[in-house]
Write a structure and sequence with these properties.
- By secondary structure, this protein is α/β, with parallel strands linked by helices.
- It has a domain of about 180 residues: NADP-dependent oxidoreductase domain (TIM Barrel, Alpha-Beta Barrel).
- About 40% of the residues lie in helices and about 15% in strands.
- It has an eight-stranded parallel β-sheet with strand order 1-2-3-4-5-6-7-8.
- Helix 4 packs across helix 5.
């Protein structure tokens, strides 16, 4: 099994806002939905999915285990609670959201519990998020690279995270890019705007197409129907090698997400 290339993110969306975003996305043809325990919106995401009437097997639902639930006696129970909120019997993908702060819970313990959840049929695939090369090595030692579907990381033209990407790809672990549009910052970039103008596309479409052409999955979010519809069209956009090289040159190591007390020592 592989990770679908394009999905809908729900970070920072709550209440009626997330219900509307997911409902609109599903109506437009989105079938991949990404949420997390810490987003506190799983119940609303589940409500929108249930109301859509779309068959469960047509959907790919991802959630992420929060750091407070990493202990082996808590992880599976917390996942079952997520399933209850999402109104489903299983997830397609379950991720460890962040590494355990200060290694309070060893990688081996939470990855082992997550693999057990997979064996129990609670999730089809498992993976990690915000893992460095060292942490990926620990996760691989715990459960094997073949059991790690993806590493979901901050990745956009200004932070291309090449060391982590190269290691993951070498191990056969797909990268999922979050914050691909860098909170909208890259949409104002003259290089990306120039490519967009030439291709008669939007800067968002160009950036999302760039990430997917590198082999990454993307999960952009939006509360606006027009943007949700426009973002979908990135799947049909092809960038030239010259375009890809231009965007590659924009990397400046600009990290936007590094929560104090939780973030690891980045590569």
């Amino acid at each position: 099994m592989s990770i679908p290339a394009f999905g809908l993110g729900t970070f920072r969306l709550q209440g009626q806002v997330v219900i509307d975003s997911v409902s609109t996305g599903l109506a437009l043809g989105y079938r991949v939905i990404d949420t997390a325990q810490i987003y506190e919106n799983e119940a609303e995401v589940g409500e929108a999915i249930a109301a859509s009437g779309i068959a469960r097997e047509e959907l790919f639902i991802t959630s992420k285990i929060w750091v407070a639930n990493f202990a082996k006696d808590r992880l599976i129970d917390s996942l079952k609670e997520s399933l209850r909120k999402l109104q489903t019997d299983y997830l397609d993908l379950t991720l460890i959201h962040w590494p355990s702060p200060e290694d309070q819970v060893p990688v081996e313990e939470f990855m082992g519990a997550l693999l057990e959840a997979k064996r129990l049929g609670l999730t089809r695939q498992i993976g990690i998020s915000n893992f460095t090369v060292d942490l990926m090595q620990q996760a691989i030692a715990a459960v094997g690279a073949e059991n790690i579907a993806t590493n979901q990381i901050e990745l956009h033209p200004y932070l291309q995270n090449r060391k982590v990407v190269e290691f993951a790809q070498h191990q056969g672990i797909q990268i999922t890019s979050y914050m691909t549009l860098a909170y909208g910052e890259v949409l104002k970039d003259p290089v990306i705007q120039q490519i967009a103008d030439r291709l008669q596309a939007t800067p968002a479409q160009v950036t999302l197409a760039w990430a997917m052409q590198l082999g990454n999955a993307v999960i952009p979010s939006s509360t606006k129907r027009a943007n949700l519809q426009s973002n979908l069209q990135a799947c049909a956009l092809q960038l030239s090698e010259a375009d890809m090289a231009l965007i590659a040159s924009l990397d400046r190591g600009q990290r936007l997400t590094s929560p104090k007390g939780i973030a690891p020592h980045w590569d």
